[in-house]
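Sequence in, structure out. First:
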Amino acid sequence: MEEDTAVSTAILLPHELILSILAHLPLPDLLNASLVSKEFNALSEDNSLWESLYRFYISSQPLHPRPDRWKERCLAIMIGIIVLFPSEVGTNFFQF
């Protein structure tokens, strides 16, 4: 019952605040957050969240040809980095 209360309380926060918190999570935690609830799933799909992650980790320039697909592009590049450079990627990869 406590878990339901925690999720319900988080949903009372403004979406902008939750998105800001999600943007500071390491990539695996961000992906896991989408499994918490339908609300968190919808928030974790927010295009502005993935655009900010793309601009922070990959490029500050708007190089993406389809601005409605930031998550797809961001994940493709991040996963590519992990595959290409596994020995250089530590447990703190993509953390602030």
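Second:
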Amino acid sequence: MTAPAPRKRRLPAPAPEPAADAVLLPPGQASKTLMILGLLRSGSKHGYELHRVIVAHGTLYADFKKPTLYHLLHRLSLQGAIRENSESGARGPRGERLVYSLTAAGEALLFRILRGALASHDTSQTNFEVAVAFMGLLPAADAQAMLRRRLAVIRARRAEVVAEIESFAAHSHPARMAARVLAADHSLSIMDAEIAWADRAIRQLAGARSRARPAAPSRATRRARTAV
């Protein structure tokens, strides 16, 4: 009597990449995550190369140290936003280095952070400044839409500040009012500058869209076509 053939062991199916919404951002690290994902979208890079490009951005990321970078890379890798691959030929005892590349979930996360940063009003400005650096990844129409949403948020906040000043003026001592007006005037000046910049950016993006469209044929050209 022959023994039954051993059953083939089924290998577990690879886990699907997590959705972008399932990737958790470390608190206060959205701008750094956006920088990493944006740089990886242009191609795979190893950690040293990523850090070199980040440092080249100047004072904006003076505090983006190597340990922070590698901690975020490891976290994003565990969450499926980036993929790690070993590459031989590096200096050192191991003779290899890790190369990072963007996954589909990571690309979705990149655009989620990018659109959110462009459309919101973050008083720290760091997220927004990084988002503007990568705004070219979006179609011009999408970038315009995000900036219009940002404008609406800033204008609504400006109206709130003005209303707060009027309410405060009606119930406060003149000496206290003077200091409060100076503080509010500072906030309003910043918001006015933001509004002026966003208006210019939207017009510039509109011009880029119109230049990208094919020019309408002239009247003479249309007549020549109809005559054929």
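Remark: Helices lie at 30-41, 47-55, 66-78, 104-119, 126-133, 140-171, 174-212, 219-227.
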